[in-house]
Amino acid sequence: MTHVLITGADGFIGRALTRRLAAAGVALHGRTVQRLTLCDLRLSEAPSAPHVTHVAGSVADPEVVRRATADQPDIVFHLASVPSGQSEADFEQGLSVNVQGLIGLLDTLRRQGHRPTVVFTSSIAVFGAPLPEHIDDDTPLRPTLSYGAHKQMAEIFIADLTRRGALSGRSVRLPGIVARPPSPTGALSAFSSELIRALAAGQPYTCPVSADATLWLLSLQGCVDNLLHAAAPQLALPPGLTAWTLPAQRLRVGQLVQAFEQRRPGCSQQLTFAPDATLEAQFGRLPPLDTTAAQAAGFCHDGDVGTLVERAVQAIAT
Ligand SMILES: NC(=O)c1ccc[n+]([C@@H]2O[C@H](COP(=O)([O-])OP(=O)(O)OC[C@H]3O[C@@H](n4cnc5c(N)ncnc54)[C@H](O)[C@@H]3O)[C@@H](O)[C@H]2O)c1
Q: N or C: which end of the chain has fewer CB within 10 A?
């Protein structure tokens, strides 16, 4: 039996993770999910079931954290976050949720002495921009957005609490997860999902990065698979290592368009390009990616561009 807490449960990834864990009797790493606690600002579409508890409110509010952790979860997926654009525009909100909220939550778990497993969704934004010519497990973290700085601070705090034995932390740096349904997200990298949605529907779209722009992509399904894997008790954790850059497919925008054309000829007829130099520099110049440590720990990407495209299209409908 296990008790799982998901914060950010009403978000794009949180909903997909919730769907995988909410069915009665579902097992996670051999243990039945006996209780599932969902926390977000709002939980408008969260599943209702006797074993599912809803905690609506901010993770930056100690009372909300107290309620969300009251029954001492065994596994915590901490996804609640203020996205990149919003964290740049509103410094105090980003700091309060992404840093102070995270510290409050994890310190509450530390005080409980229950030593849960904590899976944290970090981001490739920790690397900053411009990126070096190659990224691997030794690449220094030099975030150039407040959001990326928050993620790095969180990784450090989680590593320290893990070192102290207060919890078992696993930070996974997510690449672009595709394809989110349309919604104002505040994420500066949302164009990759907009492009995929337009190609899937054969609709007009002006792409804000060039056809030569390179992206690191992982499907929503692949992302959830990796988050669940990150919670495995038997995950190989070399001493001192608590953060992994997840494997992703590195694709040129042109390659992605070609894969959609193979699936549905003519779908890119209404696609035009108007590259924004700042956006392209920050999100469209992603170099070759070496994720040896993550692969050794059993994390993986979607395999090939065709599978990524099919899964990305499926995610739009969710
Ligand atoms: N989607 C991606 O491509 C991507 C890439 C890198 C990292 N990530 C990270 O993965 C996680 C999930 O991403 P997502 O795409 O589902 O984002 P999302 O914005 O769709 O979901 C985040 C959720 O957090 C909730 N939230 C915000 N402030 C909160 C607060 N104060 N208290 C409680 N909940 C709060 C929001 O209401 C939202 O439902 C985030 O931590 C994000 O930084 C996502």
A: N
Decide whether any atom of ligand 1 lies within 6 Å of the 8 Cβ. Answer: yes
User: What are the distances in angstroms from CA 90 to CA 45, 48, 84, 253?
Assistant: 27, 34, 10, 31
Minimum-distance ligand 1 atom for the alpha carbon of 96: 31
Q: pTM, whole model, 2 decimals?
A: 0.97
Tell whether ligand 1 has an atom less than 6 A from the beta carbon of residue 83. Answer: yes
The whole-angstrom separation of Cα 291 and Cα 311 is 22
Q: Which of 12, 147, 157, 191 is catalytic?
A: 147
- Whether 96 is in the pocket of ligand 1, judged by its Cβ within 6 Å, is no
Q: Residues 199, 101: one domain? A: no
What's the pLDDT tens digit per position in 128-179?
988 999 999 999 999 999 999 999 999 999 999 999 999 999 999 999 999 9
At residue 260 the predicted structure's pLDDT band, cuts being 50, 70 and 90, is very high
Task: Flag whether 292 is in a domain.
Answer: no
CA of 8 to the centre of ligand 1 (A): 6
> Is there a catalytic annotation at residue 147?
yes
Residues 167, 252 within the same domain = no
Count Cβ atoms below 10 Å from residue 92 Cβ, excluding itself: 9
Please check whether residues 18 and 166 belong to one and the same domain. Answer: yes
- CA 79 – ligand 1 centroid, Å: 5
78, containing H or E segment = strand 75-78
